[in-house]
Design brief:
Layout lengths: L2 E5 L3 E7 L3 E7 L3 E7 L3 E7 L3 E7 L3 E7 L3 E7 L3 E7 L3 E7 L3 E7 L3 E7 L3 E7 L3 E7 L3 E7 L3 E7 L3 E7 L3 E7 L3 E7 L3 E7 L3 E7 L3 E7 L3 E7 L3 E6 L2
Parallel strand pairs: 1-3, 2-4, 3-5, 4-6, 5-7, 6-8, 7-9, 8-10, 9-11, 10-12, 11-13, 12-14, 13-15, 14-16, 15-17, 16-18, 17-19, 18-20, 19-21, 20-22, 21-23, 22-24
Length: about 240
């Protein structure tokens, strides 16, 4: 299916099996369910409407864009997701299994749950919204930026977290297991809990906020800087 366009109406269900879907566009309407199996989905665009469920199995999803609407569930299994963009609304659940997600951008909305298993997350940017839960298992998180919003829970297992920046918001809980945390910067907000197990913490900077708990076990901590705030608890393991 090369091109599908819906204007000023709803699309309840689209299913593509063993074929490619090059372009899907929905304007001023809702899209309830899209399922692509064993093939690629190159471009999906939703403007001024909601997208409830998108599922891609054993294929690539190159570009997904949602403007002025909600995206409830996106699931990608066994392949790569190159670009996901959400503007002016919320994305509730995004799950990537056994594949990489190169770029994810959320503007003026919330990202409730993001899970990446057995793959890498190269770039994640959240502007003017909250990121409630982010879990990366058996893969790396290269760059994460949160501006004017909170990061409630971040868990990285069996992988590295290269760069994390939080501006004008709080970082409630960050856990890194069996991997390194290269750079963490929090500006104009609090860092409540940071735990690094079996890995190194290279650089941590907190400006104009408090750091309540920092725990490093079985690894090195190279640099910690707290400006214009308090550091309440610091613990080193063996």
């Amino acid at each position: 299916m090369d091109s599908l366009s819906v204007q000023s109406g709803d699309m309840d269900s689209v299913s593509v099996q063993r074929r490619d879907m090059d372009s899907l566009s929905v304007q001023s309407g809702d899209m309830d369910s899209v399922s692509v199996q064993r093939r690629d989905m190159d471009s999906l665009s939703v403007q001024s409407g909601d997208m409830d469920s998108v599922s891609v199995q054993s294929g690539d999803m190159d570009s997904l864009s949602v403007q002025s609407g909600n995206m409830d569930i996106v699931s990608v299994q066994s392949e790569d997701t190159d670009s996901v963009s959400v503007q002016s609304e919320d994305m509730d659940i995004l799950s990537v299994q056994s594949g990489d997600m190169d770029s994810l951008s959320v503007q003026s909305g919330d990202l409730d749950s993001l899970s990446v298993q057995s793959g890498d997350l190269d770039s994640l940017s959240v502007q003017s919204g909250d990121l409630d839960s982010l879990s990366v298992q058996s893969g790396d998180l290269d760059s994460l930026s949160v501006q004017s919003g909170d990061l409630d829970s971040l868990s990285v297992q069996s992988g590295d977290l290269d760069s994390l920046s939080v501006q004008s918001g709080d970082l409630d809980s960050l856990s890194v297991q069996s991997g390194d945390l290269d750079s963490l910067s929090v500006q104009s907000g609090d860092l409540d809990s940071l735990s690094v197990q079996s890995g190194d913490l290279d650089s941590l900077s907190v400006q104009s906020g408090d750091m309540e708990s920092l725990s490093v076990q079985s690894g090195d901590m190279d640099s910690v800087s707290v400006k214009s705030g308090d550091m309440e608890s610091l613990q080193f393991g063996t």
